[in-house]
Amino acid sequence: MLKILGRNTSSNVMKVLWVCDELGIEYSREDVGGKFGKNDQPDYLDMNPNGLVPTVIDDGFVLWESNVIIRYLACKYGHETTLWPDDPRERADADRWMEWLSTTVNPPMFLIFRNLVRESEETRNMKEVALGTEKATHFWNILDTHLVDREFVSGSKFTLGDVPLGVHARRWIELRPEQANSMHNLLSWFDRLKKRPAYHHCLIPLQ
Ligand SMILES: N[C@@H](CCC(=O)N[C@@H](CS)C(=O)NCC(=O)O)C(=O)O
Fold this sequence. Notes:
Bound molecules: glutathione
CATH class of the largest domain: Mainly Alpha
Radius of gyration: 17 Å
Structural class: alpha+beta
Oligomer: single chain
Strand content: 5-15%
Number of strands: 4
Order of helices and strands: EHEHEEHHHHHH
């Protein structure tokens, strides 16, 4: 059975849990990272020298990097689904939105999340929150415009392109409602994601 190492409050672990449930993959999960620690231990570092979560073990095969993990799972178990299309252009389109989240949207989202969720009122840096909000508003507006005539980021089909963005959209909508509430296409897409049972992994309290 697939083993997932990582706390379920991590955005990168959420991607893996969400995709496992979309694909009906059986798995066991062990809390690692954050308050649970263990990711600085030699046995964990032997598997994942970054000391980050998630790491998965599939029948002895160890893999880290959440986007790569979900592509591996979709490739191995998802042929009957639309998750990671075989057509090169459709696949590249889904991949593009995954990379865009990692390289472009995630950095400002991290400033918002770390300060508003992880820091106390005394230690949070509201200048960073303001900077993150300004940049993130610009990027989420790009997605909002893109979604004007699309059900999902790649069109009418749910793909891996929706997953990393979907994990972070919940944070954006909850943490910056003033900015998110005018993004009507984004909110409709979020409603469609919430109808997917597997999305429940992304809706647990932020911490
Ligand atoms: N690029 C990596 C990033 C992994 C990462 O930054 N994980 C964070 C949690 S979201 C982590 O391990 N933080 C330390 C901890 O939880 O102890 C991936 O996508 O898997």
